[in-house]
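User: Fold this; tokens only.

Assistant: Input:
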Amino acid sequence: MLKEGDLAPDFELPDQEEVTHKLSDYRGKKVVLYFYPKDDTPGCTKEACSFRDSFADFRKHGMVVLGVSKDSVKSHAKFQEKYSLPFPLLSDTDLAVVKAYEVWGEKKYMGKEFMGVLRTTYIIDEEGKIMKVYEKVKPQDHAQEILQDIL
């Protein structure tokens, strides 16, 4: 697992509007990079909406919010529109970034084990270093937890 103080791996991914985002483009700003399992599922929707509802606070403090999952650009576009999400959702269909951030792992659901995206958030500082790592996130409280920790 990447840890605090590590240089965050740079990446280049398309968002829901097929605009390419590079982590290095956000140097000089704090970045909330949150990985989530799947668009429009109950936990992921709660998490995305918590970021949406706190988005003005993140912006007020000069922070960028980026969501990442293995869903397609098209899936992200539907999810973003359905819940009026004001931040980019990045599509990592080949799992390159998910694996670079070490958030691909074994999960259990209803007695079955499978591989999937582990709900994890990285706070990246203005120089591109990892400030904080959140694992096993509680979706509906997560955005407020980050704001309390960072501000």
